[in-house]
Structure formats: C-alpha cells, structure tokens
From TrEMBL:
Protein name: Mismatched base pair and cruciform DNA recognition protein
Annotated spans, Disordered: 1-53, 79-105
Coiled coil spans: none
Biased composition range(s): Polar residues: 1-20, 28-40, 96-105
Organism encoding this protein: Lentinula raphanica
Start-end of Basic and acidic residues biased regions: 41-51
Length: 105
C-alpha cells in the first residue's frame, strides 16, 4: 500500500497495487530476477485483496442505505410526511446503485 494509507480499503489503491505488482512480476520474469517476480506477485495479491475488501465494504454500505431508506419511506408514508418519504426513497435508490456498482464478480 502507499504511504498515504487510510484505515479503509480503497478500490483505486487496490487496482494500482495490482497493476504495479503485475508490472514488477513481468520485469522479474523477463530479466530472471526472482526477487522482482516474487515482490510483484505479493504486491498484486495485496492489491486484489484490498480491491475486494473495498468492494465488499461498499456493498454492505449500500445494503444499509437501502434498509434505512426503506424504513424512512415507510414511516413517511404512514405519517403523511412526503418529504421523509421522498428522502427515504432517494436513500434506498442510492443504496441500490451502490450495491450494483460493488456487486461481487
């Protein structure tokens, strides 16, 4: 991971490390430098793991938004609060979109 590491996994950082690891592995295989090959494999694996962790985190966050949005929409409909109902529908839809973007492949 980079020196600008945060506590949350990052899809962008994961992709970067995966790509850099693949490049190092290629250089190691081309030049016969086993240390580069191994370092590349390790960095690629770390990048893939971070990407998948960020993806899972985003999916769960989307699930939470969907549930909370549905609750707010139902409460708003029940109480006649159209603003709460609309806000709940928007949060539900945002969560659904986030789940689609982060759906495991």
């Amino acid at each position: 991971m980079s020196s600008n590491q945060s506590s949350q996994p990052s899809k962008a950082n994961g992709q970067y490390n995966s790509m850099m690891g693949t490049a190092k592995e290629f250089i190691g295989n081309t030049t016969g430098a086993e240390s580069w090959t191994q370092a590349g494999k390790d960095q690629h694996a770390q990048g893939e793991a971070e990407y998948k962790a960020a993806q899972a985190s985003g999916y769960v966050e989307g699930l939470s938004d969907r549930a909370e949005g549905k609750k707010d929409s139902i409460v708003g409909a029940f109480t006649g609060d159209k603003e709460q109902q609309m806000a709940g529908n928007l949060q539900h839809d945002k969560g659904q979109a986030q789940q689609e973007i982060n759906k495991p492949s």
